[in-house]
Amino acid sequence: MKAKRVFIIVLDSVGIGYAPDAADFGDLGADTMRRISTSDKFNIPNLIGMGLGNIDGIDYLPKAEKPTAAVCRLRELSRGKDTTTGHWEMMGIVSEKPMPTYPDGFPAEILDEFSRRTGRGVLCNKPYSGTDVIRDYGKAHVDSGDLIVYTSADSVFQIAAHEEIVPVEQLYEYCRIAREILQGDHAVGRVIARPFVGTEGAYKRTENRHDYSLTPPKATAMDAIGDAGLDVISIGKIYDIFSGAGIKKSLPTHNNTEGMATLLEVQKTDFNGLCFANLVDFDMLYGHRQDIDGYANALSAFDAWLPEFVGNMADGDLLMITADHGCDPGDSSTDHTREQVPLIICGKEVSPVNMGTVLGFGTIGKTAAELLGVTYESEGEALADKL
Hints:
Blueprint: E1 5-11, H1 32-36, H2 45-50, E2 70-75, H3 83-90, H4 108-118, E3 122-127, H5 130-144, E4 147-151, E5 156-162, H6 168-181, E6 190-197, E7 204-205, E8 210-213, H7 221-227, E9 231-235, H8 238-241, E10 249-251, H9 256-267, E11 273-279, H10 281-287, H11 292-311, E12 317-322, E13 341-346, E14 354-359, H12 363-371
Parallel strand pairs: 1-11, 1-12, 2-14, 3-4, 5-6, 9-10, 9-11
Antiparallel strand pairs: 2-13, 4-5, 6-7, 6-8, 12-13
Helix pairs in contact: 4-6, 7-12, 9-11, 10-11
């Protein structure tokens, strides 16, 4: 089949069960969807009606007798479990070598150069929860002006600063400096600005987060779609994840509510091509903070929003719903988890077929390109002919 418009919605971190190699990542037993399904806030009749419960490995949700969408389970090929790795693979880039992580903090040569160029000292320099780090180092930062630098199990260099001490635009400049420094062997996946406000004992992160990713090492499915003369629109942090590569129009958002509203607005416009959106709250607000009920409630809110979007889909529209990794909010860690992810595909001409388990997140970009009449060669299986 062919499509005029393809919408891809990434439910950030909504994994559906640990991958076969999860033990290599310390994630054996992780299962984000199963975990949140135990909450009394969990209510997703529309996703279940599409066939979510019919996907391989999901034996704890009802199965739809007459599903309204095509479904499968995707298994990642890249050696990672982070945002950049997952999204890049969706668009055709398999990361065979893990991006560098820093369980013992960043080396002195990195921080010395960072301090030299910013004129500020560094606090923390170790893996830390984002909310805990401002609780524990916020006062020292406010008193000294030194920057809170921390990481996680992911390949990230995060800089937290109070907005009254370091204005947001200045923090973004510090992140750009860090991005220039962190290349080669120290090329982390993302440098992340983490501004916060408030007073001691009541510090709170703001929605002015900004990510600075590496530039993809080769052309992606978005490049191929754009080179064919079609539109490529990003919503949310997609632009940041790809450093803008292959994207013709970017619509930043701060949360799921804005993201879903923006999707509805873009749906009303007359474009021809790809709209690629990320809904970040699942991961940022609930997964990392081990908030099972909050996570379940956020997915329920997305489910309640879904009928409006699906009901407004025109002939030639196709919707793909997926995730980039897991972030089990009830395991022993606040980190991402190595999980398989769902792929739900719906449209007026889509047959409700169950395609089992498919290797490669690249299936998403490859299928989107094929549906739009564009050839893009990458690992992963093109599914257009099965729909």
